[in-house]
Specification:
By secondary structure, this protein is of the alpha/beta class. 50% of the residues lie in helices and 14% in strands. The chain contains seven helices and five strands; from the N terminus they run βαβααβαβαααβ. Strands 2-3-1-4-5 form a five-stranded parallel β-sheet, with helices on both faces. Helix 2 (34-45) packs across helix 3 (58-74). The longest helix has 17 residues, at 58-74.
Length: 158
Amino acid sequence: MTELHITVGMPGSGKSTIAVDLLANGFVDEIIYPDALREAIICDRKLPGDPYYNLSIETEVWFIVKQCVQDELRRESNVLIDATHLTQASRRQWLVLAKTFRAQPIAHFVNTDFNTCSARNMSRKRKVPQDVMYRFFEQSKSVSYSALEYEGWYVYEY
């Protein structure tokens, strides 16, 4: 059965590291990085501002991500979307898409504490602003293994 994977966790939690490991070990065939897409759009259009926090392109970014995921699922590829997915609303469309393509929905819940995420964030070249980190932290409080399972995800917790 084809699988649609998502990562769920705060910036700096280790989502991308897990995604790369899943790819390297053959559990997923393709990783889609919305952050890379944002950066490409901003740079291509020479838009001002931070490429990771330009809200004017979010609708376009997620439209393209959805198109890429659909293309991979049509090819029966196991695809992973590497993003925070901290709200139920941000995960819902992927459950619907998984059902449409008869794919197994799998969530990789990276449950890393705030201080570790914050420290990793500070050591990065591209830092998430602290106020945004706090917003993500507040959103993360509603995420749990059981909540994800209840939504319909097969869950791996790290």
